[in-house]
Design goal:
single chain, 6 helices, alpha/beta, Rossmann fold, 7 strands
């Protein structure tokens, strides 16, 4: 049942150009959650609910709070979460993440939203991270473009976006409060643990 829904969501994402995690990336994330017995997750960037549902499927104790600002994607995510029968475990917030104030603590914060805002998301929600918590960021390789010379990227907007991703990598590398490891899994994953 869930497998059918997941397959349909992957097809929908492909057809509608919705960025969801690569299979390698989501498998890594699910193993990480299982291995570290993570129960409370904050996700920045729901899209259509794919990763929230996948993370919840690891264990029946897992609760996810997820934030999406795009109305069409939010409505699609609501539908998918209902089909997955996870409405009681996935709390979906329709708002710009930078306008969301949360009080609760999370074992894991997963950032997979507007790449240019990664640092803002990180700095905004690190206060919500539990003592031994982790912040995981997706798309750190940005389709391999972070390894290219910026001047070789023709589109100005894309060049700015790649610059932002590179700056965020540097921010993570130099952040004294966190130890970050980068993995070439999927589209590149950063795993930042409180130091």
């Amino acid at each position: 049942m869930l497998d059918d829904l997941i397959n349909r969501m992957r097809e929908y994402a492909l057809e509608n150009n919705v960025p969801i995690m690569t299979e390698g990336g989501i498998n890594y994330l699910m193993k990480y959650i299982k291995k570290n017995k993570i129960k409370r997750i904050l996700e920045v960037g729901t899209a259509i609910g794919y990763s929230a549902i996948m993370m919840c499927s690891v264990d029946s104790d897992i609760v996810v709070t997820t934030i999406e600002r795009d109305e069409k994607r939010y409505l699609e995510a609501l539908k998918n979460i209902k089909k997955a029968k996870m409405e009681d475990r996935i709390n979906l917030i329709y708002k710009d993440a930078l306008e969301v104030n949360l009080d609760e603590e999370f074992d894991l914060i997963f950032i997979d939203a507007a790449k240019a805002q990664n640092r803002n998301f990180f700095e905004m929600f690190e206060k919500n991270l539990a003592k031994d918590g982790t912040i995981i960021t997706d798309n750190m390789n940005f389709h391999g473009l972070v390894y290219k010379d910026l001047e070789s990227i023709e589109s100005r907007n894309l060049r700015q976006l790649v610059r932002k991703v590179k700056e965020y990598r540097e921010f993570l590398e130099n952040n004294k409060n966190f130890t970050t490891e980068f993995y070439d899994i999927g589209d590149g994953i950063a795993v930042s643990k409180k130091s």
